[in-house]
Protein 1
Amino acid sequence: MEENQYIYGNGTEIFISSKIAMIIQTNWNLSKYFFSWLDDPRLQANIDAILPLAEDFAKKYQNIIKTFTTPEQVLAYYADYEKMSHEMGTGGVYLSYLQSLDTQDNAVIKKMGELECIFIEASSKLLFISQEWKELGYEKIMSFANNPLLKDYKNALVSKADNLKYLLGEREEFVLNEKSRALGVVEGLREELTNSYSFEIEINGEKKTMTEEEIRSLRTSPDREIRQKSYESLRTVYNTKQAQITLGNIYSGIVKDWASDVKLRGYKTVMEPRNTSEELENEVVDILIQEVQTAYPLFARFIEAKRKLLGLNTFYNYDTTAPLSTIEKEFSFEDSMKLHLDTMKDFDQEFYDYSIDMFESGRIDAFPKYGKRGGAFASYRQGESSFVLLNHTGKLRDVSTLSHELGHATHGHLSQEQKPAVYDSPLPLAETASIFNEMLLSEKIRKELSVEEYKEFLNEKLSDVFATIFRQIQYITFERRAHEAIFSGQELTYHDFNRMWREEQVKMCGTNMKHDVPAEEESTWSMIPHIFASPFYCYAYAFGNILVFALYNRYQKEGTSFVESYKDILRAGGSRRPKDLLAEHGFDITSPKFYRDAMEEVEKMVVEFEGLVEEK
């Protein structure tokens, strides 16, 4: 057989070629890795063990941690703590996966609620841990961090020492822990509500009902009317007074909770809790935001060139993601898979092999369905395999999304050599492999394109760059304004959020782009899950993209000799602070030049794109 062939059936596809035979599972096989279902007695046994595990740990270490004098005691503590944490977390991971597959499943929702109550009670029994580390003190913890016997835990100990100043008393921490349950309910309400939405659209005289992922995918249609209708369909749901009141109050409540934490713990700025958790200095994040904002005019230049290429008198927001071609190329899941695998094969055997394992092992859930969580994600933890959720709709962006999430999955695989306490990369580094995969994929596609197809490629590439760097910073500046206003005592409603969002949009886009609705109806902020679930998360995407420009430039210069250095960055997990880890590999993220170099690369692409207008 010289050509690849596919045989389909019940969520399992058999891929056959002259070189490889693969059984591809496009649904998660959770029973293989976790439990058979909610009534599996092993799941209940896992949940029932959570409180006893916490109690046993407390019996062994309460009033002991604060007396630690030797590194051997700290090693023993970490071994016990990591074992307890892993055993306690398995049921929760399984239930979170079930909920991602069907956010409307009441049985799963109820079970998650029960588990959350148990976790809060267990957490209360373990509050003594942070208090005793606080009593042990900064100097003693830092002496342990610098002990060679504890080198595997150095960054965990340094972070613990640095965070002592934000730690409250045990009673205050107990109260905050208890009230966290209410916040979880609020965020759960938003997710359950928005995932219950369905969207109506009429295409070629036929009325269709779609999921949010499916309606969003139409924003890249070559048909301007369909793009406009996709926006109108989203607005029809999100702009109802009921939705705006509900989502506005949910967001306001989340921001107020964040603000109270900032005040109680003594952070200097509303962003400092995120910066601290991501191990980035406030100054580094400020430089990132400032340098991207300074480069905002590049986006205005892009949309003006695109307006001319599309032959439009007026450029609307729904034209931003328009293709240049009138024919939209479709990519099946098999097309996407082959492109990704071919790209990985050219880059590195380990990346390729792990991708094959993901496809074959039932750890990718590929297609959208009603109730399924929107978007895409990869999930992994120390000692376990990675899982990826997709909502593949056959668009070019879905090809990039597949490579992006498999980059995350491979990152999780490579960092398995780290201890659980330093396994997870901080978010700015967690995007490295995912975005680097996208860069490799885009170059792979580029080499196979005709002149006309390359124009479309450049359009797509720039659209992605502006979406993942510039737009993410626009999200952050909106968040910062909302958080600072509420922190200062202002009361905000959805009307204020709508206005603020539009003002930040105009700063990024300029005045040449028209919007589909007036500022008072600008509901886009309410469609962004990250600002609800993980405040200030989005700058990680911008940082990750900028870092990948630097990494990819190095790869182009050094070739295959660079690959091991790159993999060393991924293998490090969270064992080093981003500034220190990247400095070891020759990157200075404290310098504005690091960010300006990336913006110069973006400008080169914009200049090339503007040149297409002259050729037209």
Protein 2
Amino acid sequence: MKNLLILLTVGSVIMMYSCKDQPQLKYPETRKVDQMDVYFGVEVSDHYRWLEDDNSEETAEWVKAQNELTFSYLEGIPFRNKIRDRLNKMWDYPRYGSPFRAGKYYFYFKNDGMQNQSVLYIQEGLEGEASVFLDPNTFSEDGTVALSGLSISNNDRWFGYSISRAGSDWNEIKVIDIETREEQPDLIEWVKFSGTSWCGDGFYYSRYDAPKAGEALSGKNEFHKVYYHKLGTPQSEDELIYQNRNYPLRNYRARVTDDERFLIIYESETTSGEAVYVKDLSKKNAEFIQIVDNFEKDYSVLDNIGNELLVLTNYDAPRKQLVLINPDKPKPENWKTVISEKDEVLGSASLVGGRIIVQYMKDATSRAHIYDYEGNYISEVNLPGIGSLSGFSGKKEDNIAFYSFTSFTYPSTIFKFDVAANESTVYRAAEIDFDADAYETNQVFYTSKDGTQIPMFITHKKGLVMNGNNPTLLYGYGGFNASMTPSFSVSRLILLENGGIYALANIRGGGEYGEEWHKAGTKLQKQNVFDDFIAAAEYLIDQKYTSPQKIAIQGGSNGGLLVGACMIQRPDLFKVALPAVGVMDMLRFHKFTIGWAWVGDYGSSENEEEFHYLLEYSPLHTLKDGVEYPATLITTADHDDRVVPAHSFKFAARLQETHKGANPVLIRIDTSAGHGAGKPTAKIIDEQSDIWAFVFKNFGVTPKY
């Protein structure tokens, strides 16, 4: 290494070097084809269209060549294995999920530390001896078959669970008798975007028809249907409950109230907004009643209170409210407001102990309040600090509930909550090899391009010198009404332990301030999202946290799009870019699997005005020849059928074609993995080790391990 120098930081000395003189990598040649598409009179080339074929030998050879180059580069980083060793050590601590009750039994998840998948345990009461109920590590030798969902019948006898193979969104549903622990013969296949909702001696679920050969991971998902499965019968005999032959690009999900009186079906065209149908199952030959006939707002039925449905909605309340709806009088003028809209965003509500426990979000951090069923305020729940709450798990008749709480330097901790007394006690705390007291988190508000104030969390060692030279990772998402709140990540500790800074920007497009914040980052306002993220980096630089030579940007899925767009719009601002499983082709995303459902956020190239707007920021189409882009490590996986890997393949090929300079631009393609859910611990550690090795090498920083 050349130009060695020493940087003095608080409590540690980090060796640094210059990467300017590293040789230009020789990238694999990628064949170009003369594919030209015409949109509203505009010709758009797509030279790497052939990479969309995930079944071709040529694509497989391209993947192999790219991975050989990428792993050759990563293997040459001398501290890569030391990072992996440190991650292995930190990761190896017990992690628990919140307990939940079914009859006389309590269930909870536990991972001993390095298990690929968390194990589900069962015990009688809270003091009983725990035993393994279901171990997903036995599903496959390499941990790539994961538990993706579960549900328990209302009579507490049957345990339904879903599995996903190699990270795919396709699920299979199976059933276990809770008392005998015996696996039942029932097997439901080709399930996607569905839970299981029990009623009587069976359950409702949603699925697609079996895909054509070779199209399971990339073919468009059409004609979602709701079925009812009776236990002990083959799937071929399942009863078709609801379908709509006139609209192939709609999704349906079913849910039954706890007393099994009402069946609710949600109908959606995109990722936000749904129509709602209700059937009163207590009435013989009852028909579905449509209580919402459009897709303009969001609705979630929590349960019924007598003849009325308790519904969480943003109708006439951008930050949400709780209302009672009588299915026989469903028009909004007949609704009864239980908890009205407030300044904070109403995130969720739980019915426990005869109370409504409501979770609010204020400036992207959690609050919790208790109300009675009439909506009268009782008290606030005292939380451990600024962070994120998950819960409350408990039944309507229980006085005891459980919730988890976490923050950037506060590992997830399980609390037992006495509803009547409003008292929380630690039930299970994490023990990890990390000194949380040595770090601090601050929330700042910075100004975006159009003057909007954007919140951002910044975490680092206490006493860190703001000299404009600290290694920094800026993370963002900015879409689909998803809120980015404080969370704990073992892999992030690699940065913090080495004098680095982690920044999370709560940019528009998310749900941090309700529906209006979300809409301000969609369709023809999507540039706001990129402007917000760019302004976050500029703030960190202006305030001397870091510099353009020490800042990396990261995001996954829609966040991968964010990183792709921003590294192209401002290549001078970032040293490293980490787009993961990103949506990179904004003209064709709707043609694969469930991509059509994202049109509500992005718009569509089939609309002339939206096409021109998409073309202006689409990462694949805005790369320019001869530009020095940041050092880039694209990550994707061969079984990602949410954002198909062709997005990343084509973007990588085009980036390698256009990029100039010595910054490496590589793609890491995982095998037997998908969009991220259910990924085994071993694969997570391997991937995170590679990412941090790449970041530190291109920062010119040698971590202290």
Protein 3
Amino acid sequence: MSDMTDRAEYVEEGDLYFFSEGTDRRLYDKLGAHPCEQDGKRGVRFAVWAPNARAVALIGDFNGWNGAAHPLRCLGNSGVWTLFVPGIGHGCLYKYRIESAADGSTTEKADPLAFFAEQAPRTASIVWDLGYRWNDAEWMGKRGGRSSRDAPISIYELHLGSWRHASDGWSLSYRDVADPLIDHVRRHGFTHVELMPIMEHPFYGSWGYQVCGYFAATSRFGTPQDLMYLIDRLHGADIGVILDWVPSHFPSDAHGLGHFDGTCLYEHQDPRLGFHPDWKSLVFNYGRREVRSFLISSAIFWLDHYHADGLRVDAVASMLYLDYSRKEGEWIPNREGGRENLEAVSFLRALNEGVYRDFPDVQTYAEESTAWPMVSRPTSSGGLGFGFKWDMGWMHDTLTFVSQDPVYRRFKHASLPFRMVYAFNENFVLPLSHDEVVHGKGALAAKMPGDAWQRLANLRLLLAYMWAMPGKKLLFMGAELAQPYEWNHDAELDWRGFEASAARRGVSRLVCDLNGLYKAMPALHECDCEPRGFEWIDAADAQTTTLSFVRWDRAWSAPIVAVFNFTPVPRSGYRIGAPMQGSWSEILNTDADVYGGSGWGNYGSLTTTDVAMHGRPFSLDLVLPPLGAVFMRWNGNGSGNGEGHDPDTPR
């Protein structure tokens, strides 16, 4: 007997009190299709919310899609219709035929709480037993420590359909992708993968962001158990899994949630509230209590049944503002006359409270692009309650800066240190995501100025800068391969070009080493979200377009100094104030030969001299590589040779 059968076999009106109150976090145990036993007979119990329906019938392959064969009964005033059908089970196809009391129209709808669905363009729901024998107890017992604010979190974002294709040109399945993905992620040192939405969606070109099935893993890549297998295997390899989740909008496809029972049930009726102009989609009515139960239950479902370690919540800004992407007259102010969506704010707080109450060892990540305060602060303090927030400001300022010709970078130098004005107002993730390499924006490598060598040098410099800055890391697939063209969801990554290019393989090796240092050096991750872990050495040297700062561990005993040269000019005798006296070793240099660089840098270890600099009584005399970064680790009070290194001297 499956775990789903054990949970609930009957639904009565009293079972739906919390659903109608808006506080049910496990609606999937009550609504949907559940194989079970009733009155000694095996079958399936169906339940669907359609409060404005005159009649609801079950149609499927088991009754010839006959709308008269299996009428459902309504449970009192709950708006939920239910039926037990004996003799059917796992794998049956079904829909609901709904006659609206509002206008008498009849529509055929997929089950909003179906666990599986036909592959698009077919639209029927499938009765599915979610039983699976998990083997990730060890991971589940320790995952809280792997996703805490003081842990190294380095996220590899990927789109399953276009990461890698099989020999026949089709996308790899959930099961087939497991081995190569694990090998790739472990080799590069990422701690987590983030899967772009794998909830069922009718249009592949939406990348999963137009969700119809909020409880169904997309059938494009296999069955629910196949996805569980992939997550189970990733956990077995000590890799966490974050799922992209989209409560901000949904498509208007006829079989979906829109106009579900002949009325605007899940969405607002007024298009100024219920229609999203950017995506031509429908907006959830967050003020409706049953809708809140539906969405919060969806979030809990993926943590519960699929052992997800976190949820990245898409397009939070579009939820928070009533005037988001709308002109004057196209939106309705809130009850206080403002532009804030108070119902969405309340929903997001309830969402995070529910998630952390039931799963305190996971994290939620907000993609929020504005200055809304306290996104990643507790709801008890007035925050939205997310664990982390994407730092879109850092992403925008940094990419704008590095995409300029180095000749002009000194005029925009102040845009880089500006980030530290707000860097600890939230628990930030630094994202270089899929959104930055589509729609004509070009690949990361293609954004960089200069010739072929300089573009990759700039890319290595950007990656080192990202890994050195406070904040967790997120990199979209392909950047670690130095892919030269922007992402195409219909094609796999350029694996052949990568294997044929030593320079591109050098970027890959740098990502491996950056992640290795990030995990090994407490100074680079322990205080990602605390101001005590960061200190400028020199943020104002616009003339040479260099930056230098210190990352501290919590005990202030093992600092890392990071220095960046954003020009193609190598700089010998570049002196910076040192935070600690004694010996320092160069532990990473993006211009090293192994990364495809020219070999400028600091050979062995350096020793501070008693020359005051940057407000410190001692300093280091460095060689800065062109378009390069160096990381220096304090060794203690030993001595070093203090000599710089030029490309003509063997390493």
